[in-house]
Design a protein that fits this description.
Layout lengths: L13 H25 L79 E6 L2 E3 L5 E7 L6 E4 L2 E2 L1 E5 L3 E5 L6 E9 L2 E2 L5 E8 L5 H29 L8 H23 L9 H16 L1 H15 L2 E2 L10 E2 L5 H4 L4 E5 L3 E2 L6 E7 L6 E4 L2 E2 L1 E2 L8 E5 L7 E2 L1 E5 L2 E3 L5 E3 L1
Parallel strand pairs: 2-10, 14-23
Antiparallel strand pairs: 1-3, 3-7, 4-5, 4-8, 6-7, 8-9, 8-10, 11-12, 13-15, 15-19, 16-17, 16-21, 18-19, 20-23, 21-22
Length: about 425
């Protein structure tokens, strides 16, 4: 930076460059911290995971029957009152008594046939690893007392009818699980649902998602500002007048990301986006922050579809409204470029060049090989515009004047030496 132009020439001093750099670094660290801590972790917050016993769980190995006869061995320490008799298994006929014959397949109390549960579908098919998701199982033959298990973990049934079961899912690790129904300690469903429910890690939603979008957009704006700062400092062409831009770019990126999300993305996303969808939203927000100018142009297209298009304007004249069916030709006049006051300059840039032609009244940009030049205030007229050349490696480049959607190039090229 020893050969850079000094602050008196409008260029930022080394102290100013360091101040802007520290500001961007601190802001970047803040956005990183908020994004990391606001992103939900994939950890269980309850103890009901596969392989553990939960309250109300039915052990398939327990001996019981519809008459409520418990195994005599359940009364540990009680004397055996059936002297000389063998221990009968639960549900067998004691000596001297008879039971009514049940129909084939087992019967319920009173001799009626016990129906079998048949599972057809489950809605929804996924939920949080922390459980408590409202799920409905559809099918037929459901009874009060049926136990529903997700990969062996018992769910809390809240409502039962012949054709549906409503329940709250238990906790479980991330992954795909089976659903089965147990009745009287045995699996009774004609068809269980294999790999039918997916446990997913929680995704940000509501206020947390809004905060993440805002800070992701700010992070994109910081990246934009840092790249711009690196470019112009490297070419020793950083003006003091750009300082406010570097301060505001993160905030502009945050605002643009939020607006872009509300208008465009929110209409295509579910109310409770998945973890992957939330990552896509945050990545889009960061891109909007990085390329806020392009995002603003896209929002302009959307606004023009709903509102009246503005006509061409200038610094001293207000814009006029155009009919909605007016094309680009009506918005901007024809532009021609016929000459330049100078066709050579140093690679460091900073040379003043006046370009002559027609239709320059509303000129917005002049580029040298695609690199924007700084337009000198007060020099824009219908037939000329004066700019300060940007830095560029030694080469022969094209010069282009843009007015709205129209552009023109002088017949000669500009040579950097």
């Amino acid at each position: 930076m020893t050969d850079a132009k000094g602050p008196g020439d409008g260029y930022v001093s080394m102290r100013g460059i360091v101040s802007i750099t520290i500001y961007l670094i601190v802001l970047a660290l803040l956005t990183f911290v908020v994004i990391v801590f606001k992103w939900p972790e994939c950890d269980l917050t309850c103890k009901d995971v596969a392989g553990t016993s939960t309250a109300g769980d039915t052990n398939p190995g327990t001996n019981s029957n519809s008459n409520g006869n418990a195994n005599a061995n359940a009364n540990a320490g009680s004397p055996n009152t059936n002297s000389g008799a063998t221990n009968n298994a639960a549900g067998t006929t004691p000596s001297g008594s008879t039971l009514p014959t049940s129909p084939a397949g087992g019967g319920a109390a009173g001799g009626t046939e016990q129906t079998r549960a048949d599972i057809d579908s489950v809605e929804p098919t996924s939920g949080s690893i922390n459980g408590n998701t409202q799920v409905m199982i559809k099918g037929k033959g459901f009874l009060d007392g049926d136990v529903v298990k997700f990969d062996g973990v018992t769910a809390r049934v809240t409502r039962v009818s012949d054709e549906s079961l409503s329940l709250r899912t238990p906790c479980h690790e991330e992954g795909v699980v089976d659903i089965a129904i147990y009745r009287k300690g045995k699996e009774k469903a004609d068809n269980d649902l294999s790999n039918s429910y997916t446990y997913t890690c929680p995704a940000p939603s509501g206020r947390a998602l809004f905060i993440l979008i805002i800070f992701a957009g700010a992070l994109g704006g910081i990246i934009h500002a840092t790249r711009s700062l690196w470019w112009y400092v490297g070419h020793r062409a950083l003006y003091w007048s750009w300082g406010l831009m570097y301060i505001l770019l993160p905030f502009i990126g945050a605002a643009m990301a939020l607006v872009f999300y509300l208008i465009i993305i929110a209409g295509f996303l579910p109310n409770a986006p998945s973890r992957n969808v939330a990552l896509f939203v945050l990545a889009t927000a960061a891109l909007v922050g990085m390329f806020s100018q392009q995002a603003a142009l896209k929002l302009t297209d959307i606004a023009n579809a709903f509102f009246t298009k503005p006509g061409p304007g200038s610094e001293s004249k207000p814009q006029k409204s155009l009919p909605a069916n007016s094309g680009d030709a009506a918005e901007t006049p024809a532009v021609t470029a016929t000459g330049m006051s100078s066709t050579t300059g140093t690679a460091a840039g900073g040379e003043e060049v006046t370009i002559t032609g027609t239709g320059f009244s509303d000129a917005t940009t002049v580029t040298f090989d695609g690199v924007p030049a700084q337009v000198k205030p007060g020099t824009v007229s219908a037939n000329s515009i004066t700019v300060t050349t940007p830095p560029h490696a030694a080469a022969e480049v094209d010069v282009e004047v843009k007015t709205g959607s129209n552009s023109a190039k002088p017949p000669m090229k500009y040579t950097y030496t």
